[in-house]
C-alpha cells in the first residue's frame, strides 16, 4: 500500500507538480524539508490515532459520564432520576460503611504490596545465582502468575475448605483444630496468600533488573570488604529502585481495585454481595454492591470518582516521597 | 560452600512445591468423589481416581460452546490489540510531531489508570449502545491499542537501526508501507509475546464477560465459576475443580510453549 494521495518528495522533485494538485497550490519544491516534516507529523498522528481515539472514547468519555452520573440519582430503571449536585458525595463521606471499606482496602494495600515485593525480590535474588535448572525454577515459580484468577480462586477455595481442605489437614497433623479459613477473621489472610502466590510477576521484572546490575559494581563492593547483605542493600537495591517503584505504584493501584478474588469467594447466587466475609468487604466490593445489588448507579459513580482521586493522590505522594530515594541510572552509556 | 548450595536448592525446591501446591490440589480435588470433597477430616488422595469427572464436567454444561466463546474473544482481542499496539508503537518510536512527548506521557500515565473505574461506566454506555451481549466491546478494546503493549513495541522499534527505513524513504515509500513491509516482519518476538499476553488476559478475564455477556454467550471463565451448581444452588465441587483444570491447562500450555518470548516481553517492560 502506498501512502495515498501524498506524493513523495522524490516524485515531486522528478516529475513536477502536476501529479498532485494540492501540492501545486504551494510554490513547488520551495520548501521540501518542511513538507517532509509535516508529512512526518501527519504520519505520527495517523499512527497514534487508534490509541488517541480509543483513549478518548473508552476512557475519558466513561470517566466524564461517571462524573455526571455521580451528580444524579440515576438507577438505570426509574425514569424519574434527577440532578442532585453533591448530595451523593455528602452521603458517602457521612457513611461509616465507606470509611470501613476504604480502611480495609488501605490495610490490604499496605500489607499485600510490600509482602509481594519482598517475596518477588527475594525469589529473584535466589534465582539469579548460578544454578542448575535455573530456567525450570524460573518457569515453575512464575507459573501461578499466569493461572487465570478463576482457577486460582477455586484452587484456594478447595485448599482452605473447612472440612476437606489441605490447610486444615496439615493443622490436624499437628493436633490443631480445623479453622474456618474462608470466614472472618482468617479470610483476609487467605486473600493475602493468593496475592503472594502470584509473586512470580514481581520476580520476573526484578530478575530483569538484577541482570542489568553491572558486575563490576558488585566486585568493587566485595573488594571494599562489603558482605553479601551489605552489597545487596547498598548496591543492588538502589540500582533496582526504579523497578521497585514501578512495582509499588502498579501494585497499590491493582490492590485497591481487587475485586475478583472477593467475588469468587462469595456465593454466586447472591451477586457476590452478602456472602462475603466482613474482613474482605473492601472498597471496590462496596462499589459493586451499590452498583449491582442496589442499582444505585449515581451513588456508585460517586464512590468510583472518590477512589479515582484517592489513587491519584496516593500515586502522587509515592512519587513525591521516593524522589530522593529512587536512583535512576544517570549514565545510560554505562550499560552499552 | 557445599552446604550453602544445598540450602539454596532446598529452599528453592520447598518454595516451588508451595507454589505448585494449590494447582496440584485443584487437580486432586477434580479426581475425587463428591463425598470425598466434603468429608472431614481431609482425604489427601482420592480412594479411586475419578477420571470420569473430567468427562462429566465436560458434558454437564456446554463446555465446548463456552470454550469456543472464550477462544473467539481472546483471539479477536489478541489479534487486533497486537496489530493496533504495534501500529501505535511504531509511531511513537520512529516518527515525531509536536505534542508527541505529552501524548507519550499520557500513554504511560494511562497505564496507571485504574481499569475497574472505567469499566463500570463503560458497561452502562455499552448497554445504551446495544453492545451488551455482543463481542463488539472486545473489538473496540482491541482496535484502541493497549498502553502496556504499545510501550513494549515502542521499546523494540526504537532499538532498530535508522538505516532500516532510510532506503525506503528515499524510494518514496509511505510510512504505512514501511511499517508493514519492514518493521512488522522484524518484530516476530514482540508480536508473539504481545499476542500471548493479550490472549492470556482475555482468557483469564472474569469481570468483563460477566458484566457484558449473557449466560450462553459468555466465556469459560464465567461458566466454570457459576454453572456447576445443583438445582439447590450449591456448587458441585469435584466437577467444578475438574472443569477449572481443563480451563487453566490451555493457558499453562501456551505459557510453557511461548515462555521465552513471554518472559522477555514482560521483562523489557520493567520501566527502567
Could you tell me the CATH topology label of the domain at 96-327 in chain A.
MetI-like fold
State the helicity of chain B in percent bands: over 70%
Q: What are the secondary-structure elements of chain B, in order, as H or E?
A: HHHHHHHHHHHHHH
How many beta-strand segments of chain A?
Answer: 0
Based on the coordinates given, report the CATH architecture of the domain at 96-327 in chain A. Answer: Orthogonal Bundle
Sketch the major β-sheet of chain A. Answer: none
Please report the two chains with the greatest interface, counting residues with C-beta closer than 8 angstroms to the partner's C-beta: A-B, 107 and 100 residues
The shape of chain A is globular
The SSE order of chain A reads HHHHHHHHHHHHHHH
Low-confidence stretches of chain A: 1-31, 267-273, 330-336
First-residue to last-residue Cα separation of chain B: 34 Å
